[in-house]
Amino acid sequence: MSRTDHFESPHAEKHRSHRAAWLRAAVLGVNDGIVSTSSLMLGVLAASQSDSAILTAGIAGLAAGALSMAAGEYVSVGSQRDSEKADIEIERKSLAENPDEELAELAWIYENRGLDKKLAEKVARQLHDHDAVAAHARDELGIDHEALAQPMQAAVASAISFSFGALIPILAAIFSSGNAGAWAITISSLVALALSGAIGAIVGGGHRVRASLRVFVGGGLAMAITYYIGHLIGGAA
């Protein structure tokens, strides 16, 4: 819990930009699970009409994709956290060695944001005395040192969201076969992508139709191209 969580704003508004990080990861994971798994299954289906091969490809795609997403997010977010901690440590050391210069720098930041010189110095002094590291991390580096990136949380969230998305074409394949399976995978995946885009827009406050169209068209192209590649390979075999 951050320091500001102990206080309530006298005029609380419902902003949504603070959801950007987790919303991006969740939407990306679900969409990636749908697109990559359905495309893989359609490619195999175009090359081979074997129901077992299509289902195997889907399950393998789910496992590989979820693990890949988890590993990628862990490494990426872990690197971000390491960078944040290193920057904070540099600032902490500079505060110990050059407190006056750091105070002047903080006042300069506030002055450039619109405060007059005396007020900027007063604000900088009060915040500097209260928690110098937090003030400099936030206003100089743009880092909340009490809410650093969480690599394990990001890894688990990405793996779960990818798996959830990948299950949609897999379930469609389980309850259908042959040409009907191709249509079932395609339609269910496209509908899921459109819904995912709309839900992401609703949660994030974006335009629902544009968000749905982006993922719908992008996912449709990916599936069509992969299916065509599978058809070419199957025809040449």
Structure description:
By secondary structure, the chain is mainly alpha-helical. It has one domain. It has seven helices and no strands. It has helices spanning 20-47, 51-97, 99-112, 117-139, 151-174, 178-204, 208-236. The longest helix has 47 residues, at 51-97. The radius of gyration is 25 Å and the shape is elongated. The protein starts with 19 loop residues before the first helix and ends with a helix. 33% of the residues are buried.
Topology of helices and strands:
Layout: H1 20-47, H2 51-97, H3 99-112, H4 117-139, H5 151-174, H6 178-204, H7 208-236
Helix pairs in contact: 1-2, 1-5, 1-6, 1-7, 2-3, 2-4, 2-5, 3-4, 5-6, 6-7
Short description:
The chain is mainly alpha-helical and 237 residues long. Helix 2 packs antiparallel against helix 5.
Share in helix = over 70%
Low confidence ranges: 1-7, 11-19
What's the helix count? 7
| Structure class | mainly alpha
Cα(first) to Cα(last) distance is: 60 Å
Let me know the largest β-sheet: none
Mean pLDDT: 81
User: What proportion of the residues form beta strands (DSSP E)?
Assistant: under 5%
Shape label = elongated
Throw out a few tags for this protein:
237 residues; mainly alpha; 81% helix; disordered N terminus
